[in-house]
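Pilot study result, target chain (523 residues):
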Amino acid sequence: MPLLFAPRGSSTALDESLSRWVESRRKLWIFCAFIAATIWTILFFQFTIDDAFISFRYGQMLVEHHVWNWNPSGDRVEAYTSLTYTALSIIPAFLHMSSALFFKIFGILCVGGMIHRLHARSSSGFAFLLALSLIALHPWLWMHTFSGLETPLYMLLILEMAICVERADSVNPLYVYTIFLLLPLTRPEGLVFALAGVALFLKRRGNLPLRLGQFMIVMSFGLVLFVTSWHYFHAPFPNPFYVKVTHSSLREIRASLLANIASNAGMLAALGIAFGMARKLSTRVFIVCGIALMLFLFAPHMMPMNYAHRFYFQLFLPLILIFYMTEDLLPIARMSCVIAVVSLITVAIHSDLRMGLEYFPYLSRAHVDLGTKLAPFARNHTLLIGDAGAVPYYSGWVSYDFMGLCTNKIAKDGLTVNGLQEMQPDLIVIYTHHPGPTMLQDPETRTFLTAQAVVVDYMIESGEYQYAGASRFRYFYLAEFVRKNTSDLPEILSAIEQNTNSSAPGGYSMENLLLQKYVPWRR
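Predicted structure:
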């Protein structure tokens, strides 16, 4: 095998030799990539993140209740950030199939689309094989592919925009402008890549027709969507914007910035090397956009739901693939391999594997099972919970979220005892390490989450709630309290008791893993 590193002053012969060596073993390379992708699929296919069920619920509400809302009645709530994925949730709801399964298949199609585009557009066989290896070997990609969130589509759209820039002389401008629209509808910060991509496209288009009239139509359509959403939900931005955009002190921002840079140093280093090796303006612009979003949008905050470094990886992978696809890698074959190696060795295999394997089995036994057992009592019952995902989706109850994602008043004005008194939820779910009837007097219960102190005060002051049970979820419990005078009280208590028993600690087995026991095939 050719040396990866050569003495200073050596020619590019070693780079060319390395690229030829890789290409000469194309079939073996592809076979190994297929085996790696198959292993990750077996391990992570069951992985579905709780937040994905927020989008799933909108499709469910539209099909079952003919309303585009979080709840079947009441205030109109925009709890999602990805309009594209939330709109796609209508399809499985209409077909009466599992939304989780639908988006797993859709995620695989997005990965297949990236591989197809790389195969068709990479500058060399060596570049394609290197990109394919990174896709196949990286466990984070497969966790995100099956998570149910918009990450795989977002990465595909970034890659597709870069391809359009490279093919500016032959691509249909309307196709570019459509991607321009889809990027921010899929992820709000996608607007940065949308603007950069269109600017580069127009620059490279030269004297060819720009069809700016089409661009204005697409822009107008996006503006109409924004104004319509503002009018419909009575707010310019979705609730996650009001909940997650916090005003931290300079000290907190500095601490978060340093911690995030340290934990994502491998990705930043790989992008830095790629930027230094790149020769094309478009490649450098896309990389700068990605690094800027990482450092100035995400790094100053401890982002929730950042599993498998989600907010950084969804930018990192497509940018590295763009580098592999657009640049001439043959003269820099060794450094291109270094980028791939750096990208892989920074993965915390142990923690990622454990999280990916354990997460949904616990979610299934706690959240999914609880929601399913509560479903028969959905009529005229209300729920207050901090996890606005699987429990509201499977239960069908009118649901409030004490974190604010799915409740307008809490998102904008915060959680208050008076607000809870107006809601009077029939079931309240809070979080603890020590469940039991006396947990409300435990100081740890109040501090487990900041908002929980208000919920605990409300239950103590009202005296209207009784402890019903607790669902085990990984390292903590979802403790359920039922209002004493609610209808169907004995039946609800029985359902919660069954869930408490079924969610007892139980790990996972290879048999369950291979049979995909925990995939929610229905609903």
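One observation from the pilot: Strands lie at 382-385, 398-401, 427-432, 465-473, 476-483. A full batch analysis is planned for the follow-on phase.
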